[in-house]
Design goal:
By secondary structure, the protein is of the alpha/beta class. It is built from 10 helices and 8 strands. Helix 1 links the parallel strand 1 (3-10) and strand 2 (34-41). Helix 5 packs parallel to helix 8 and helix 9 (224-253) packs antiparallel against helix 10 (262-295). It is elongated, with a radius of gyration of 25 Å. The structure holds uridine-5'-diphosphate and magnesium ion (MG). Uridine-5'-diphosphate is lined by residues 9-11, 13, 42, 70, 72-73, 76, 93-95, 97, 198, 203-205.
């Protein structure tokens, strides 16, 4: 029987874990598959961990990876994929915004031979602000990046074991998983769904994190912002030339007139200063990301695991130079 690994990142989801677990258990009973539920506790500050360890004690299908601190959603999902041994891995939010029953549809499409089945929002119940910014973001992203990243698509998706295997080799720090999966390729297919509202608790993605994430998406998949700098440079050089010609001609035609230059000078200085600082900022963002990457620190730290066979996860995270990166299933591992 094939094994499906569900990956749930958990950050302060105390109020959702029980419902999520009961819904999922009920759902997978209809399936002719074995399942494992991988919960990655991303440094929750509430009672999430206690709930999860309780589940792990009762149910051998439950695996819990407990991070040493909060590493962020994308890293939590990464750790879940690192641990997963299924023939397919399904990534889902834990707040029931991604309807569990849609995962069955993902599995159906996978059985039809698709390697990546991503859930695309037909509708979203978000604030007007979030909808507008998301639309703008995907427009910018797709106009900049070399690969096609599907719009209205989060991380809710099914990936085949071979895609998961490939994804495990991507150890970049500032992660944008949906972009990586798009880049990996294979046979990809969307499934439309209606996204629900968060069941309980509040979002772990405040505006600041969202902006950072958007920047990761753009900078992780495009170097066009860097090319933009030279374009702006050309534009400014052209403006400078105009200014020079103007100043010289004026000096030649009215040699005795003192140019009342203060306004013009101050505008020029502020304009050049502003644009330059902005451009250095773009370079700085790339340099910062290079710096993080070059340090080559582990992506995450695990302080404890529950129900996870010991070989799968090293204390400092996944060992990507291991000869065989996918842990073979241990007999009697999963009921
Ligand atoms: N999450 C996480 N670490 C974080 C923030 C969020 O693991 O630092 C998890 C969270 O528990 C949820 C998923 O990522 O399962 C999506 O987060 P959330 O629902 O808060 O984001 P939103 O749906 O509001 O964009
Ligand atoms: Mg959510």
């Amino acid at each position: 029987m094939k094994l499906i690994s569900y990956v749930f990142p958990i950050y302060n989801e105390e109020g959702n874990i029980d419902l999520l677990y009961t819904t999922m258990s009920g759902l997978v009973e209809q399936l002719d598959y074995r399942c494992e539920f991988i919960f990655v506790n991303d440094g929750s500050r509430d009672g999430s961990l206690a709930k999860l360890t309780g589940l792990a004690q009762r149910d051998p299908r439950v695996r819990v990876v407990d991070f040493a601190r909060n590493f962020g959603h994308q890293i939590a999902v990464t750790a879940g994929i690192d641990v997963a041994v299924g023939d397919a891995v399904i990534i889902m939010d834990s707040d029931l915004q991604d309807p569990p029953e849609v995962s069955l549809e993902l599995i159906r499409e996978w059985e039809q031979g698709w390697d990546v089945v991503y859930a695309q929002r037909r509708s979203r119940r978000d604030t007007v602000f979030k909808r507008l910014t998301a639309a703008a973001f995907y427009r910018i992203l797709n106009s900049l990046s070399e690969i096609e990243i599907p719009k209205d698509t989060g991380d809710f998706r099914l990936i085949d074991a071979k895609v998961a295997h490939q994804l495990r080799q991507y150890r970049e720090h500032d992660r944008f998983l949906r972009g990586m999966v798009a880049e990996i390729g294979f046979k990809q297919k969307p499934v439309l769904f209606d996204r629900h509202e968060r069941h309980a608790g509040e979002t772990g993605y405040p505006l600041k994190k969202m902006l950072r994430f958007a920047a990761d998406g753009i900078m992780g998949f495009s170097s066009k912002p860097l090319q933009l700098i030279s374009r702006v440079g050309w534009g400014m050089a052209a403006l400078a030339l105009l200014g020079i010609v103007y100043a010289i001609v004026r000096k030649l035609v009215f040699p005795e007139e003192v140019v009342s230059g203060w306004t013009f000078t101050i505008i020029a200085i502020l304009f050049v200063g502003g644009v330059q600082t902005l451009m250095i900022g773009i370079i700085g963002s790339y340099v910062g990301r290079i710096y993080t990457q070059v340090k080559a620190r582990p992506l995450y730290g695990v302080q404890a695991t529950y129900g996870v066979p010991a070989r799968t996860v090293a204390p400092t995270g996944y060992e990507d130079n291991a000869a065989d990166t996918v842990r073979p299933a241990v007999p009697g591992d999963i009921t």
